[in-house]
Design goal:
This protein is α+β, with helices and mostly antiparallel strands and about 110 residues long. The chain has one domain: Alpha-Beta Complex (Aspartate Aminotransferase, domain 1). α1 packs across α3.
């Protein structure tokens, strides 16, 4: 799959209470005001929330797909190369997981 920033936007738009803004020179996406995804590197990758333990395992297992930006090393974020994703399901799963990590509990309860 050769995912694009537009593919990311389509998935994000399907999730409740999301907004797109522009910050730090790139598009950023929030749920209920809380950041859950950015589109750096000219929208060829995305940065998503991911628990550090899981993130480290992802990077070790699939370094061509996932990596950690130096300035995010101590934070629960992982970078994802959009062109390396297997399919739309994987893109959707990664974005939804990040959204769920940032969404308020009341919103999660309402959507589950």
């Amino acid at each position: 799959m050769k995912a694009t920033g537009d593919d990311v936007r389509t998935v994000v738009a399907s999730l409740p209470e999301t907004t797109e803004q522009f910050a730090w020179g790139m598009p950023v996406f929030k749920v209920a005001g809380k950041l859950f995804l950015t589109l750096p590197e000219d929208e060829t990758s995305m940065a998503v929330r991911c628990p550090i333990v899981d993130r480290d395992e992802l990077v070790l297992a699939e370094p061509a797909k996932f990596w950690i930006a130096t300035h995010e090393a101590g934070n629960p974020w992982v970078r994802v190369r959009l062109a390396a994703l297997d399919d739309r399901e994987e893109l959707t799963a990664i974005i939804t997981d990040s959204w769920r990590l940032a969404a308020p509990r009341a919103l999660l309860e309402k959507t589950d």
